[in-house]
Amino acid sequence: MTTAEPGTGRDVTALIAELGLTADDSIEPTATVPPGRLREVALALKERGFMLMDTVGLDYAAFPERRPARFAVLHNIFHPEDHRRLFLRVWLEEGQPVDSLYPVWRAANYLEREVYDLLGVEFVGHPDLRKILTPDDLEGHPLRKDFPLGESPTLFREGRFIDPPAFRAGLSGQNAGLTGWRGEFRRGERGDRVPPVMPEGGPK
Fold first, then answer.
1. Quick check: helix, strand or coil at residue 134?
2. How confident is the prediction along the chain (204 residues), in pLDDT tens digits per residue?
3. pTM over 0.85
4. Strand 98-99 and strand 123-124: pairing?
């Protein structure tokens, strides 16, 4: 695991050990936090001068390697003075809630609402947990791997379009590109970049 320039002031290896956490095998300095300890760890980091920069949710349902749980919430924690950065990863099963970090950092307000809206993760203790990006009448959560994509081709300028089946294949790594314009080859692939033909009369 990389812990941000070992031997310098940005190395967080000692901090992870001090907090009693387990280092995650990630490119960025990341620690795995049990759900029940999240707020405790966040408070300890705030006391050390850290602030919350971002919160994202991840769905590993289609990930090729086995993961501890289907979902993960990842908090990006940063120290504005010494520039140390630490990601806190919390693994969650389907329907499992996690403590909100709003009582620790007010910045969690809209960040957690976005994860709630797009992945359906419930944050306990959030003062106003409701949708923020999608319409109120939209059923489901768009960033889940099993969320159904629309079936109408999307036409853009200059004849470029997105074909739903090709788009799904591209998201799952089964296709070289996501659009009907051309797309790039994946590593190790070769071939002619020939754009598919738009259906006669335009998108159906």
1. coil
2. 445 445 456 899 999 999 999 999 899 999 999 999 999 999 999 999 999 999 999 999 988 889 999 999 999 999 999 999 999 999 999 999 999 999 999 999 999 999 999 999 999 999 999 999 888 887 889 899 988 766 555 555 555 566 666 666 666 655 555 544 444 555 566 666 555 555 566 554
3. no
4. parallel
